[in-house]
From TrEMBL:
SUPFAM superfamilies: CYTH-like phosphatases (SSF55154)
Species of provenance: Mycolicibacterium confluentis
Protein name: Uncharacterized protein
Amino acid sequence: MSDSGDFEFERKFFVQDFPAVAASDPSPSLIAQAYLFAADGYAVRVRLQGPAPVELDASPAELVTALGDEAIGTMTAKGPAAGGTRYEAERDLDPLVAGQIVSRAEHVVLKIRTSIWLGEDGWIIDRFLAGNAPLMLAEVERNSPVVDLAIPSFCTTEVSEDDRFRNEHLAHHPFSTWAQGYRDELDLVGPRFVNSLGQNQFEGT
């Protein structure tokens, strides 16, 4: 979340191939987040986050347990997004309580997060697990609207305004159940990028 009060400013991109530069992150994180409520752009999320285990073939419950004592718990209330800005009020939560909630929740998203710096921006790459595999998304956040962005070549298309790629939607409608339809759509319409947030700059052009 950004440091600008209870708002986040981000842009999000679909990634087809894991970028080699992301492998430079020495400490990727495992994130397990449960959506207790999601409707009309509003959501309540409980997250447990800690160092990613080496073995990722375990069940979701085993992965949550593997987060152990180094985990951090949070609870977040979110509002609808508009123009790359979204209300997000995040508060600390006892990790033991967060873990118990996540392990009991019906709608859970699991992902491995790596972080990299490219130019003046910090980027995260999320590789989703379980029912959302093999989805990969890249996000960039700032303390103000993300304008005049230098977009790396690993960003296939922008999904900042596509609600299907919000985590609360993925928790209820796993990517694996509609991945082929989305790939067919992408082949048909081609890449798209938001043009209302300044001048996009594309790597290699």
